[in-house]
Amino acid sequence: MQVRVFETKQEMGGEAAAAGAEVIHRAIDERSSANVVLATGASQFEILAALATTEDIDWSQVTFSHLDEYIDMPITHPASFRKYLKERFVDQLPIPPAAFHYIDAEGDGVAECERLSALVSAQPVDVAFVGIGENGHLAFNDPPADFETEQPYLVVELDEACRRQQLGEGWFPTLDDVPRQAISMSIRQILKSRRIICTAPDQRKAQAVRGTVDGPLTADVPASILQTHDAATLYLDRPAASLLSSTN
């Protein structure tokens, strides 16, 4: 895992988007298609804005999946990740993508996991854009995360720290309004991505970033699994990197 540190979130997002765009270009050149996984949340604002305005990508050859969605969350809800991705990314593209496999968790969660698992397993993922939670989670794999399951998508329970982060970021009016379950891409499925681009801005992520980079590999800091991926890069701003033993 490589670590890169930037002075501003805008620099961080721009550089991360450029690195991902390079992977997408290469995949399209090699086989006329690319498969991309997107994350959501406040950590992805800058990178998605930069990626959507990247020139010379034929988005009609790109298929997207995303990492997670709350159980029983309608797409009209302000916190819906489907809504977030449609409005902040898909609607900003100059042409529609080949496909976007949205997670629809309003019905049978287990059946939806099976549907999504079949879709994401059909082709290798060229690049996954991910973030790190304040509790160290990767997607909605809260600690202690399951590092062993091969199932690509899971129904998971959200711990209180995760739910408090969603409240703190302003997605819900009260903690009781934050769902307790979600569908999440599994840890091992994320690791199958050929390239992983992880962005984690802000001081509130500093403890989790330190555990991810300087700490041991442990299910109690799920993002520490990125240490095992040869093509994972962690993009940070200075506040998020403030507790690391060394920074560039």
Describe the protein's architecture and organization.
The chain is of the alpha/beta class and 248 residues long. It has helices spanning 9-31, 45-52, 81-88, 109-121, 160-168, 187-191, 206-213, and strands at residues 2-6, 34-38, 62-66, 68-70, 99-101, 127-131, 153-157, 181-185, 195-200, 232-237. The protein has seven helices and ten strands. The chain has one domain (2-188, 201-237): Rossmann fold, CATH 3.40.50.1360. The strands form two sheets. A seven-stranded parallel beta sheet has the order 1-10-9-6-2-3-5, with helices on both faces. Strands 4-8-7 form a three-stranded antiparallel beta sheet.
Number of domains: 1
Total number of β-strand segments?
10
* Estimated structural class: alpha/beta
CATH topology term = Rossmann fold
Supply the CATH architecture.
3-Layer(aba) Sandwich
Summarize the biggest pleated sheet: 7 strands, parallel
Low-confidence blocks of residues: none
Rg computed from alpha carbons, rounded to a whole number of angstroms: 17 Å
CATH class placement: Alpha Beta
Spatial strand sequence of the major β-sheet: 1-10-9-6-2-3-5
- The number of helical runs is 7
User: Can you give the mean pLDDT?
Assistant: 95
Q: Termini separation (Å)?
A: 14 Å
Beta-strand residue percentage: 15-25%
Helix content: 25-40%
